[in-house]
Every structure is written in structure tokens, then in C-alpha cells.
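Case 732 in the screening queue. Each case pairs one protein sequence with one candidate compound; here the compound is zinc ion. For every case the pipeline is the same: read the inputs, emit a complex structure as C-alpha cells, and attach any notable structural observations.

Predict complex for case 732.
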Amino acid sequence: MPRAPVVRVALATPLRQLFDYRTGEHDIQPGIRVRVPFGRQQRIGVVMATAEDSDVTAEKLKAVLEPLDEQPVFDAGLLQLLQWAAGYYHHPIGEVLTAAMPKALRLGADLAAQEERWRLTAEGRDACAAGEPRRAPRQQAVLAALRAGECSATQLRAQCGETWRSAARALAERGWIEAFATDCAPTPAAATPPPYLAGPPLNDEQSAAAERIQSSLGQFGAFVLQGITGSGKTEVYLRVTEAALARGTGALVLVPEIGLTPQLVGRFRERFGIPMAVLHSGLTDHERLIAWREAYSGRARVVLGTRSAVFAPLAHLGVIIADEEHDASYKQQEGGFRYSARDLAVMRARGAAVPVVLGSATPAVETLHNVAQGRYTRLTLTRRAVQTVGPRLALIDLRAHAHTAGLSTPAVQAIERHLGAGGQILVFINRRGYAPTLLCTACGWVAPCKDCDARLTVHLHSRVLRCHHCGAEEPLPERCPQCGFAVKPVGQGTERIEETLAQLFPGVPCVRFDRDVVRRRGDLEAAVQRITSGEGRILVGTQMVTKGHDFPNLTLVVVLNADQGLFSTDFRAPERLAQTIVQVAGRAGRGTRPGEVLIQTEFPDHPLLTGLLAEGYEGFARTALTERREAAWPPFSRLAAVRDSAHTAEAALQFLTEARTLAEQAHGVRLLGPVPAAMARRAGRHHAQLLIESADRGALHRFLETWLVQLAALPSARRVRWALDVDPMELF
Ligand code: ADP
Ligand code: ZN
Ligand code: ZN
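Case 732 output:
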């Protein structure tokens, strides 16, 4: 191929364009990083395309200073995905790349660097077999890691701790292990051979699902794997991954939250015993670079990670799996580039001609719509792999029953009954802290956050008032600062429920599960351990407990405050409520005992609740789709939101009002707002939003294309921080 004289480079600037450079004597392909002159500085960018000539005049066209890679960092498929994302989310391509790439690579780190690796020698293998070393736990740890396969220095540090190197040296002196170096260039595709551990034989539904997905390996297909927790979805992921590995390809596995990665990594590691790359927000820049190298070189055939892992390079992508696809965490809700990793996963699979599996007990209403339209194929697991009796759901009418600090009499009686039968109980309340409000009963003063339109939450354990929106904290006052009378906490949070349960059931151990208790790595495992060991009998938890943990002895779930989701201004609130109830209910009766689920509500006749009880999530989703069709909400229309914030409410509204004026002549789109956010003031800034709705995706995007450029040029834009959110997940 002749050398292209010009390259088009994406640079991290807010400008929505590529920058042309002469290649000079270099042979540069798309996907390679280059160092280029930019104004008076030098920058590192990514070549998006090559060209024969440029619109920039010859005198002005500067030359690339140097290419940083020999092989493209992004292959053609990923480049296409990034460009598509920049277009769809209307975000500058340079900033899209910034979000997609590890910082170390943006700063010029070598992706194909030589890397220090360690492996077991034949003598080492014999020594292990003979049970050596008998003492020296740190050496044992290093040996154990290497018995599973060769490891990089970084992996050894992660698995064996900071002191791994001295242990490794001691072992190397005895001739049991050795270091070697490899480079990170992509390796050719090779079928990774078994032996893998055999999984359990799949049941009929699992087999049918796995076979259907496997038959799509090598071509695009979007599959929705729907099944409650415990129905064996992960076993299907493992089987499909095995088939992908057997073809010499790998799997990209996405999870919505960092908390879910260790469990899934554990399952994959145990089954395949092959190197994996793990990517999540808890990594250091260097760790992230190493994980990319593992994925890029093909040494890690399985890449598992949260949101931005959707951009990870895989030497030979074979399948993409997105677990808990309905989870809002897949949508980036901050910063400028607000993408949905779930939707990008589907786009990536399409471009790469591989199947994508979207797994969930409660697929997003949009996803079910795609199934109904024939775009996605649904595969259902209706039975629990281990136990087939589903939980019984019932409502408790809060208007008809007395309650103690938020726990109704029937709920308390049910807890007593299940405790008596030796079961475990989950009390679900989506609010941490002791109470959401501190009130003066004399003058009506309520403790406010100084920087938000919000009340401060009482945290009795740490004796502080805390804002759950901006994090502000102040000491808990003894008396009302306004009139000096006594103050009292009003309403319930996890701390208070825990206290009430301790009073009602003295001596029964209670475990609390919320972000105040689970803070560091290991806290979650410790809390889970207290439940699975049977030590904790009652579990009080927030949303955190709905995620993936298996508590086989849990027989009763009590949902305390379901009503919050029933009357929200956000059209997705009912969907989130239904998903939460189904997910929480899924915690009950997972062993051999049937489960019972009680939902406390003041609105027992609400159609959402009665529908959910009568027909489950399917019934709910059908009602939700009908309602959305009538109201022309997504997926029956396309939405985008412009959100801004400013020091004053006026400035926040003024920018959006001017933005709306610019759009008066627009065709095929409808503008709603601007309105102040439901909580207008947060962390001292005033927030507002303007919605743009259209029945036609093309019309919406054509409109945004021109309108955004005009917005950026508005003088009032300089007084606000603003961002566009295409397909917003949360409205306020
Ligand atoms: P999900 O991902 O839907 O929550 P899992 O795949 O984790 O479900 O399965 C739940 C439990 O059932 C796991 O302990 C798993 O090992 C087990 N399991 C799944 N499928 C089978 C099967 N076909 N035979 C026996 N056990 C199974
Ligand atoms: Zn007072
Ligand atoms: Zn606040």
C-alpha cells in the first residue's frame, strides 16, 4: 500500500473536528497514536483516517513529529465505534478518545512494551507436587498464583501483595520459578485449548439459549437472556465464552458496577484458569495500562469490566456479554461524553460481526421493545437452576395497620414467624442513615443543607448531619438553632430500622448493608460472609443488596418504602421501582425453601403494584410500554436533554431560554422547558434542563448537529456549565 501523504488526527480539544498533518517519511495507518505540533505546543492524538490531500494549504499543513505505535492501538472496528459514538452523542471526537483510552496511553506510554512475566519451572512443579514449601506463606502464595498459569509482575503484586518480589527472588534462587519478558504485540488467533473445568450439565432452557447464541458466533446477533437471579444466566455466559475460546477468539464481559466484578471474575477464573484482564474505576493508571496490554496482546482472552471497558481492545473479539443490562450505571451520567455502554456494546458487536448477549432478570423497557420489534432475540430461563418455587408476593396496606418506626404489625409478625422457622430475613429500605429529617417540634425548623435544596440526613452512629447530594457534613445539634427547643429525627433510614429491629428482637443478630458500612474493598465480602455463615439473621439493606449476592437461607423479604417510585416526575421511575422489587424479591427463597415477599405501601391499589403482583415483570413491562406509547416517551420517541448549572437560578434558565429561542424554527422536534431541576440547587449551583423530543431519530440528530454549534456561541453559555445528554436515563 502506498504511503498516505496526509493523516486526519483526533486531538483532545472541544473542537468538533479532526486535524490534518503531513506524514512526511512516516508510514502511518489509522488507529496509531502520533505526536503532533498544535499551536505552540505538542499533543498526542490518534489517527482516525488517512487522506491523499488536505483542505489546509500546503504552507500551513504541519508534519507529524513522530508516530508512537507500530501497530494500531484501535483496530478498524473500534475506530468506527468511536466515530459513531462521537456522532450519536454529539461529542467532540478528541474528547471521546480521551474517555475511551487509559490516561497512560494519552500521555504517550508504550502499549507494546516488553513486560516482565514469571512462570513455574519443571523443578518448581515437582516441588509443589511434593508439598513444598512447607512454611513461607508468601512463597506459597506466589507459587499458587503461578500454578494457575504464568503471571505478569503486576498480576503477582495484585494477588500476592507488595512484598511478592522478595518471595519471588527466593523461589527463583531455588530454581522453582523464572522470569522472562514478552512484548505486547498482538498474538495470532489461536484456539485456547481445554482442559477447562467442566461446568454443570445445562438444563434444557440453558442449552437452548447457549446453542442459539453459539450458532451466531462469527456473525452479529443481539440476544436478550432473561432470567431471574439464580436461573443460570452466568452458566450460559460461561458456556458461550468457552465456545468463543475454542474458536480462537475471546469474550468482552461488561458489568454495571465495580462491586459485581470480583464475583464474576472468580467464576470465569475458576472455570477457565486463563489470564483475564479486569478493568474498572478502582484501578491506578498503571494498572489500567497493564490490563489494556493484556487485552490488546491477546494474552488475556477474557476482558471483564465496567462501563468504559466497552472500548477495551481485544486481539480477537468473539462475543460481548453485558450482565444486568437494565442497570442505569451503564449510562455515563456525568461529564461531557454521556454514553450508554450497553448500547455501544450492541453497536460494537454489530461492527465486529459478533453476537452480543444482554442478560437481566428485568430487561429495560427499551430492550423489551427491541425484542417486540424483532431487532433482538429473547432467550428465557424460567426456572431457577437449583430450586423451582418462586417467592410469594403480597402487599401490606400501611393505612390499615399500625407501625413502629416504619415496620407494620404484619411485617413484624412475619419476621417473627420466619425467625422461628430458622430462616433469614431481608428488610429493604432505600435510604441510609438514621432518619431523613431533623425537626424542631416547637418552631418547625428542619435541618437544611446550606448548598442544596435538600434536608440533611441524620447519621446517629457518627453523630453528624450529612447531605446525601453534596456530601456536606455538620455536627448533630442537641437543640434547635432557631429556638433552642429539643430536636427529633423524623422518618426512617437503615440505621433506625436496625435499631428498631434490635428492640423488637433482642439478641437476634442484624447485619446492615449500605454505603456507610460497606466502604472499602473487603467490607462487602465481610458483610456477605456474616449472612452466608448464618451468623446474621436479619439483613437491613439498601439497593446494594439487590446486586448479585446469593443468600440461600433467605426466606422473607420486606420492602419498606416502595411508594417513592410511584409518583415521580421521571417517566422511568416506575420501571426502576418494578426492577428493584423484582430484584429484591429474587433474594428470597433461593435455597430449598420457598420465599415470601411483603411490600409495604400506602397505595395498594396502584396499577403498577397490582399489575406486578398479578403478572410479574412481564405484566408490568406491557403496561409500561402502553403508557409510554400514549405519552410518546421513549422508546416511542427520541429524547435528548441539555442540562446546565450556574451560580444563579436566572443564569441557568437564561442560557436554556436563549437555546430554546434559537430552536423556534426547528422542524420535527419538540422542546420541553426549560425548567429548574426538581432539586434546583445542588452543591451551591443552580440546575435546570431543557428536553428535546422527536418521533424521528434522524430529525433529532440533524437538529442537534446545527443547534449545538449555535449554543456554544451564545454569550450566556459562558456563564453556565452545560452538557448534552442523548437518551438521558434520569430526568429531573
Ligand atoms: P444467574 O447468573 O442467573 O444468577 P447462575 O448461573 O449464577 O445464575 O446460577 C445460579 C446457581 O446455580 C449457581 O450456583 C450455579 O453454579 C448453579 N447452576 C446454574 N446452572 C446450573 C445447572 N445447569 N446445573 C446445576 N447447577 C447450576
Ligand atoms: Zn425550633
Ligand atoms: Zn447538599
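Case 732 observations:
- Residues 571 and 633 are 8 Å apart (CA to CA).
- The chain has a mean pLDDT of 89.
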